[in-house]
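wait is this the right file?? whatever heres the structure
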């Protein structure tokens, strides 16, 4: 029996906690090739494609701030990977800015301009809203509360599998933007906009 390899794309705006999320789960990802765009930079595509050829399980971290990354997803899909998207989201560009500033002060983190933080937030939102359905499973995890990750929405393709009632306006904007482009089902749109707890059986 051939085991289907998996790709986990971990994305989100600046200072959403992508690297910390991966580091805290290294035991779970012990047999995965971990690829971070900040580390590999211009070699990212080469390292990624080589891992696909070797049929390695992959964790791929990216801000996903331009649509060119969809080519990487398509490459994995053609190689019959199971595609998972873990979207670590914040509620607003200002929240991302505040966390970037705090990280810089507390951890001597990377200094990123206000314009780049806002641009990355906007482009990340657009790309998630437009391309999430390329994945077999998408988990929307809110990371705005320190030391607490909250999984509030899971999608399989265009369909909602689970939703947890919340106060995050970001998800309302996501639902409206995605539904206007036929990227989520009417049921998913209604569940999110009406902000009601929801769960159904996962498809086989």
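ok assuming it is, sequence goes like this
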């Amino acid at each position: 029996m051939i085991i289907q390899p998996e790709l986990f794309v971990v994305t989100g705006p600046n200072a959403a906690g992508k690297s910390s999320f991966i580091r805290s789960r290294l035991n779970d990802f012990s047999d995965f090739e971990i690829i971070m765009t900040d580390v590999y930079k211009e070699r990212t595509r080469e390292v990624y494609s080589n891992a696909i050829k070797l049929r390695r399980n992959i964790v791929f971290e990216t801000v996903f701030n331009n649509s060119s990354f969809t080519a990487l997803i398509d490459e994995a899909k053609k190689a019959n990977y199971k595609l998972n998207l873990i979207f670590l989201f914040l509620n607003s560009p200002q929240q991302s800015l505040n966390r970037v500033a705090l990280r810089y002060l507390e951890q001597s983190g990377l200094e990123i301009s206000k314009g780049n933080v806002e641009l990355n937030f906007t482009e990340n939102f657009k790309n998630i809203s437009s391309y999430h359905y390329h994945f077999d499973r998408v988990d929307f995890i809110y990371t705005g509360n320190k030391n607490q990750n909250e999984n509030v929405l899971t999608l399989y393709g265009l369909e909602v599998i689970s939703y947890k009632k919340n106060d995050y306006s970001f998800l309302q904007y996501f639902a409206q933007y995605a539904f206007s482009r036929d990227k989520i089902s009417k049921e998913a749109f209604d569940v999110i906009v009406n902000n009601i707890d929801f769960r159904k059986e996962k498809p086989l």
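The beta strands are 6-11, 32-36, 57-62, 82-89, 137-145, 148-156, 159-163, 198-199. so i think its the right one actually
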